[in-house]
Queue: 4 jobs
Job 1
Amino acid sequence: MSTLKENIWKKRGNFSSEEIIELAQQAATTEAFAEILLQRNVLTAEQAKTFLRPEINQLLDPFGLKDMDKAISRLISAKEKNEKILVYGDYDVDGTTAVAVFYSFLKHEGFECDFYIPDRYKEGYGFSTAGVEFAHENNFSLIVTLDCGIKDGPRIEQCNEYGIDVIVCDHHTPEILPPAFAVVNPKRTDCTYENKGLCGCAVGFKVICAWFIHHNEPLDFAYSFLDLVAVATGADIVPVTPENRVLLHFGLKEINTHFRPGIAELLTNAKHSGKVLKVVDLVFLLAPRINAAGRIFSGKRAVEVLVAQNSEDAKVVAAEIEKNNYERKGLDRNITQEALDIIAVDPFYEDSFTTVVKKEGWHKGVVGIVASRIIESYYKPTIVLTEEDGILSGSVRSIEGIDVYDMLSACEEHLIQFGGHSMAAGLKLKSENFIAFREAFDKVVRKFTNDIRIERCHFYDTEIQFDQITFALYESLQPLEPHGPENLRPVFLSKNIKNARFTKLVGAHADHLQLHVKQAGNMAEMKGIAFKMKDWVFPVLEGKEIDLLFQLNENVWNGQSSIQLEVLDIRLSA
């Protein structure tokens, strides 16, 4: 038992019974559901109605974004003069979906245009010099950057020298605004737009909406892109707060009713069951495949499959992307094991607050995924770097409560360049600076946490008894979707649980725990699955009482439906 580490469990909020009862009565719902709403900052019956029944008219006015009027006036001028426009975007899901959306919009409106996705390995992240030269050599007079550009002032200055205007559509935090014709970014300090959490694709979508609003035209065509906006919003892990919730809600409706050829082919290759797509499917089925194109071969292929007009064209590209994704999985698995082996023998990591590993030859396209995998084993901010020609480049992933962008900023003297978000970033440094940077990064994180190690923490919404777990409860939770940061799937706590009939290990590697459990003093028996928790089989078999944190799933077997616990964590009862 000493080998089983128990994580910290915390309740999301601490609302009084009076507050819970009052909202339950106002909204005509159960106290358990009322508490879940309160955890999501839904405090009144009116707010509950808006939250649970999103309407498309809840989308904010795109002209509330700073420089939107300038962006639209420049596009109008480009249309009148028949100028060539280059749509430039990053090679990840957010960037490629944004390019697919904006390029398709320009083609529909009769613009002369093309798109450009930088090579991850030759050009790196952001607006590249090669991209600028491509635009100049091919007589483009306007560039629209999507999901990048905010930190690319020197390249934009180069565009200005060439007489090329740039409209930056980005969502990364700016330090100094680049000298672009227009900068549309909700995170500008002088931008009063309420939703600071738009993904890059959504920023481009807002420009499209502004175009049609300016021309007094209906927004139906703009809304046809909500499927790709939803994919990007889900994949980029942005907060599912009011406007993003609307984008996801109607994006899921769009993707489930009007499959664009490329999405249909990607799902076929993913062996999607045909059930209604949810955010989890966007994140774990579609996003990895769209990402795989840029990780292994070229992000251009991702755009090509998303803008394909028929299944024949989409099928060919989707098949290539599926091969990319298969290769990505193998690289991910092998490099993760190599990184874990390095960590296991290096004494630095025994008391470090961070993990920073490197090796020559690791594939650049998967180092971010590997960093996330390492966090599953060692809960620390993690950097995975690959070495080539004396330069280390790679990705950073963080844990709850630590802004890695700020941490990198504090030791940027060791870096050639860096950029990203609070939870994920990219960086580049000289190989000779590795030890100094590793120590500096660890020192900065240690200082930020006041030398107190951040432990993995599981949050739950409310405690319930097994006899409260019914189909009625499960159905009542469905309007809470779509889920994501700040609106995660509800997590429940139940205490004093005992093995009812049998417990066994399942899965290809026998590392998942299948449970049939009862609660003390309760006749209801529940079935559950605890992924990668095989070590808990012995205390359960020994008959010890345990507490469970879980989410609720519907399980269909032989045509029969039942509610199953998806166990997130286990601890021994106090």
Job 2
Amino acid sequence: MAHLLGAERLHLEFPTRTVFDEVTLGIDEGDRIGVVGRNGDGKSTLLKLLAGRLEPDAGRVTRRRGIRIGMLDQADVVDPGKTVAESVVGGIEEHVWAGDAKVRDVIAGLLADVPWHAQIASLSGGQRRRVGLAALLVGDWDVVFLDEPTNHLDVEGIAWLAGHLKTRWPADAGALVVVTHDRWFLDEVCTGTWEVHDGIVEPFEGGYAAYVLQRVERDRMAAASETKRQNLMRKELAWLRRGAPARTSKPKFRIEAANQLIENEPPVRNPVELNRLAVSRLGKDVVDLLDVSVVYPVQPGHGAAADAPPGAPSTKTVLHELEWRIAPGERTGILGVNGAGKSTLLGLVTGAVQPTTGRVKRGKTVKIATLSQELAELAEWADERVSAVVAEQRTSYEVGGREMTPGQLLERLGFTNAQLSTPVKNLSGGQKRRLQLLLILLSEPNVLILDEPTNDLDTDMLAAIEDLLDSWPGTLLVVSHDRYLIERVTDRQLAIIDGHLRDLPRGVEQYLELRRTSAGAAADASARLASEAAAPGSAAAASGEATLTGAARRTAEKELSAIDRRLEKLTAEIATLHERMARHDQGDYVGLGALGDELRALEASVAELETRWLELSETLEA
């Protein structure tokens, strides 16, 4: 395996501290390395040193002759005076870049909703970030450095980026070094991990799951002062080993060692106990959305409405006839593309949004708190010390069956004694985020809404917050693009698709499958309509009606027959499943729950097929 880039005895100091001391490491062809560590320990600085954007105080970085290095920085470096097209493909003729499959894939994966000829200055921060990432990925590089590439990407975008990076080079070519707090992304893409801490860079084999195991083993052999950190990482490892099998198929470590470490570790949550506590605090009623629809007016002359043809609808239905009864202790993740209505749905729950039709029923004891994306809640305490702010709230808090002081909670969330006397305005983004969560928990809500809670947090702090939430006995609703977080802290996932709520028994993977199917069906429909419109002498061309003729009609008839056969098969499977449920031990709630999930998935498939059957029937009869 050829060597691409190396660092020898790097030393770097900032005025207040030493960032790196005697760091030596190398990057070879085929390396896919994830960089983890606490905020402020030097992850981004390491990338800049290796990419040549920053010079060390001592030591050197060596690069193979002719090597091509590309880097995505956290800073916005896209020229606001250029268009999207100019930023991504430069002055290359359209027929040239359009003939490159890689360029087309990058544009479709990252910029499908970004106007191609829009000025960069007119785009949002998230869109600019995606333009910068696309501009990097269309180039040919031997080594790619990515600093938080998943920021501003939704679940689909992150899945696309992971797939692109896995297939960008052959297995033994190219190199990737990525800094990200997205742990699913680290496990999906990386075959090695570097932990940056205490002025050194420590390598580990495998992705995030392998890193957690090796770190636990290292901590177990360390001094007794590491006990608290060790226990937290063991719990994280227990979650990883009990999670999806794919997490353990790639790392190259002994599964027996992992099993020995977690054999006495209890489940991350005790659902029976948490539900009991939730019911005692909430009662039986939380929030019920009953046949709720939300319709927004479309203002004429603004945005997309300005280009709408005469007679276009003047309203937009965001949510349509939803029914969702939120239970005490329910832990639900909500998925959906940007603009699908996630914020509107949360607004219905909190009361910030009123339904156009239907009604929202709230329990009398419900107390809702929201961890929002903004930090406005901390503005009033900007000049106060952290310890003073927390002392004003409560003197104690119960976590996992034992009472803790606010100071102990702050320590659990990564605050040091020195930081307790720091004014709130001088805290870093991640520290403010942790303080914001602590203040919310101290207010004792029984319904907690997390809206993109992973912003500004490193992997250690995410694990600490997840550990804290495990013992929180309330109803938890989470909206996040962080796939790992969704699967880690919630027990159920819902998706907003075409204004409706869709249950996802198989979680995020099922959501991505539904999105791929939806995109494929839309593309097929567009192609079919274009073909019909272009067919000479067709009834549709003559009358403007969507009547199928010729080959298009035969294709639709074949699809209708296939749906009939599929429906017949699914109906038989549902009947068999009902019999299995009747014969199953009625005291086995876990087994019955699994059968119930399987039944709901089959019934959802039947509903989708029936809808498609009706559409085809109406088209053929027209």
Job 3
Amino acid sequence: MTTAKSSKEKEGIAEVRNTKLFEVAWEVCNQVGGIYTVIRSKVPSVIKKWGVDNYFLIGPYFEDQAAAHFDPATDYSTPIGKAVLEMQSRGFDVHFGKWIVSGRPNVVLFNPYSVYDKLGEIKYYMYKDYNISLPEGDGLLDKVAAFGFQVREFFHFLCENKYCENNIIAHFHEWMAGIPIPGIRKSNLNIKTVFTTHATLLGRYLAMNDQDFYKHLPFYDWEKEANNFNVRPIAEIERASAHGAHVFTTVSEVTGQECTYLLGRTPDLLLPNGLNIQRFEALHEIQNRHMKVKEQINEFVRGHFFQSYNFDLDKTLYFFTSGRYEYHNKGYDLTLEALARLNWKLQQAGSDMTVVMFFITKRPFYSFNPDVLQSKAQIEDIHRVVEEIKEQVGERLYSAITSSSGPYEFPDLTAMVEDYLRLKLRRNVQTWKTLNLPKIITHTLVDDHKDEILNFMRTSNLINNRHDKVKVVYHPDFIATTNPLFRMDYTQFVRGCHLGIFPSMYEPWGYTPLECLASGLPSITSNLAGFGDYVVNNIPDHEEKGMYIIDRTEGNFHRSAEELSNILFDFVQKSRRDRISLRYRCEEASMHFDWSNLGQYYDKAYELAVQR
């Protein structure tokens, strides 16, 4: 019995590997959001299983993105290359080549703008055939509709030229890519379709506006709510894609519930998100890399805080949160409340530890705060003078010791510094020092009086007072190497911190805690995030591996805030040795989320598609 089953499984896997796989996503060669990370990081493991000639990615062609991500082909002799040439001869602006990521997969990119002259006809048939009504003048929907039309025509052309006599699986990610699915089914093309929704747009809007979203989920009228939030066309596309696909999937149990009630179909399978962990793996260098990057963060903290007052950086921990600005959904409200409680608890306990909390998100701003930039420039001037003094004293000390003829005496170092450098250092330090409190935000926001993060910090007096044990830096832009304050990329910044905090109220998956884990960094998330829910159900003793999960299912904000503040307080009490040990356990645990392991869920979806 076991042998027969094993033989059948091997036969099914072999059948899948002899199949051509197309993955269609708006984020192929187009860096927009989290799905870009899913697709890009998965490529090496997919090519290893399927082979480079059996795997193709399809996405939109935007010239500015293609310049950085796309390498045009020179050989069009393959069936896909010939199909691209034929479509070009018919007037389609389609491009064939390689995506410049690990694995260098084959990609086919369609320029949405090239068929804008057909938009009226495209929209007419979408309404006539699938009852999906697209409005005029919506830029994103116009591009998505034009892209979907070209993808459908591409598959039609492949099947007309007998390419579909092979097994073909087309895997569509998210509503922006899902429009071709109803057309493929209506035309009865010999293509097996898989659709993955990574989050429903309607669910995201509802969660932002309803504190008890999951309690109310079974009772929503999707049509009424879609009209209320003016997202009816997108909801219709999502529903048509979900119902039209041979296999419907999503990324987590929590999003699966959302799909059942808002899309009207329960997912067949769950496809949890992974990472290419080898890209992060630092082996025994994990602590050394942390220390190196932490020193860079220390430099920012010195410039930002020490002009007003100082604290012991050897007894300072760096916490952070990051992601899309959704104050309620991302749990920024809960994080701030917990930080205010942590500040009080550390003061009451007489702790000698300091926490610096970074909020990294994206908000409209005018520019960097001039005072923040000036402080950064001034401390760099001080550092340069100190280096001059160090070099001068070093040379004079060496000369004094080696040229001395009498018994050894330690020289007077003060006398070795020129008056010019002493005066220069003194003036730089006096110019830099201030009686003002350190800024809580690094930029000048547009409408900062409406910003919920700023308003909470002001009303709770979490404004970087000298006596505060929790300091806050709100950075309303994503971190990059071009950033003058940090001069590092986001991945480096994460590695230099001590803890990530992501207690989301609504999060279909949530890559940020997983990225922390891969960098050897413990993190906190919630069981309403797909990643947190997966950890609770699949990773025993997860807290021992640096994965802390807050229970937010009951919707009791203050209880959750107290639970989070207690986890933070306990973490602050850990010894340096304990934190280092936890880092190593985090990195070891991250291997569970490598695509070499989680890719099996995709294999099951493709096997199911072939069977159906």
Job 4
Amino acid sequence: MKDSSSPVALMLLFAGGLCIFLYGIRILSSGLKKASGERVRGLISRVTGNRLYGICAGALASVIVQSSSTIVATLVGLVQSGLMNSTQSLAVILGAEIGTTAMAQLVAFRLHDYALVIFASGFLLNTLSRKEPLRFAGEALSGFGLLFYGLKLMSEATTPLQLNPGFLALQHYLDTPVLGIAAGMAITALMHSSAAFIGIVITLAQHGTLDLEGGILLLLGANIGTCITGVMASTGMHRAAKRVALAQIMFNVAGVLIVLPFVHQFAELIRFISPSGGGVAFEVPRQIANAHTALNLLMALCVLPLLSLFDSILNRILPDDPKEQRLLPSVWYLRESALTTPLLAISYAKAEVARMGRIAERMVHAALNPFVSSAPGADMVFSDLSVVSGMLMREEKLDFLKRRITGYLIAIVRTGLNERESKEVFALMNIIRDLESIGDVIEKLLGKFLEVKNELTCELSEEGKMELMELHNLVSRELDQLVLSLNDLDAVKAAVVLQFDERFRQLAARAESEHLKRVIHLHEAEITHDIHMELVKVLKQIHHYSQSICGSIFVS
């Protein structure tokens, strides 16, 4: 293209710079996430009722992943899985909105001229380093360089717009509150990144094509537009998770309502506290970055004392659904107040473990259905759920209960126990590990083979189904008896479970032998071989864990 200043050329240059900028943010975020591992999620999940800690955790996590939307999506997942309640998430959301302003501050430093040097340094560090932390740091640094190189290209594309009449007219429209906020909201929602949009805003300001007032209005819109990610993450989830996404919308809308009537006064305040000198190209971008930080700090300061009110409003708008509550992971019997009395606390733990056994029992009863029936079927308790959805829901409950009961048992140990109590506690720890493992093997079976089974050109043979059903019925009866023994860790009832072992071995050996005979003569049996053998393997594993649990009951 000969004329590099033509509208098409400038548009392509801006689009290319934007793509590089967005890719740089992705690489930067990826490197920082890898370097921090699961610490970000762990940091957020440990938030309790301390609002100050919640804000600090949210801000730090948002700085690490460079996205408040990602933090809100993480909160949605944590609330959905029961590791946090929606009330605890509110302060974290405020902190995340503050942390996301770090990107705007970095962009305003105008490191464009060093972009390729930064990228090359990060690339070499990532390529040549043998240590994993250094490689991840190099990846983040290379993303940082790409980010600024993208901004440089966008800057070059917007330079000719300074005197463009059409663009100057557009700036006049953006100074209109409704249009400015709507533009910021729409573009941010489309880009799914407020950081990217604010980078564009600062780039425009560097060439005098955008003033501070217009930039503030775009920032206000961007704060609302960034909520789209949380809304999408909460789609299809329970009401507690949806309240997290709604909270972000309410907070950011509140911030807009607080600042909007005083945009000009707010702009004057930002000009007063921002450094002067260096011309418009330096002053306005820095002022916009400072306005972004001040806006989110102001919102946090105004909303923080009113979190209880916001929590009450959220619960009125989206109250808990009793039906949904039954699907959520929760504890029924554990009482922190009982920890001072070990004998009582252990009895509560036993009750929760017995409940865990009933959950695993229902999973086992349903495990074979998706592989021997063409119909999806309905869950035995929750008729609105399919058989598979019911099993996955219970697997989440088993994971949750394992964590909570284990933590409770460790707290009991720390109070000081006699020898008998210690044996009971460690037996319970082994039992919950095995019960959770039963859920894991069923979940892996569903994840690995259910889709494969649905894509096969034929089903399991009728003879194979009968053999598997006979083996499954035995394992199901074994779990029924096991649950009875878990109610009070009854060794007599557990001994009955051990009597299933010989019969199970016989049936498993016959199922494998008969299937291999069919493989030789039937092409259909060869096609379904992997699934048939995997089902036998899973039933063997469930049987093994049942027998192991009985051994733990005898030890207690």
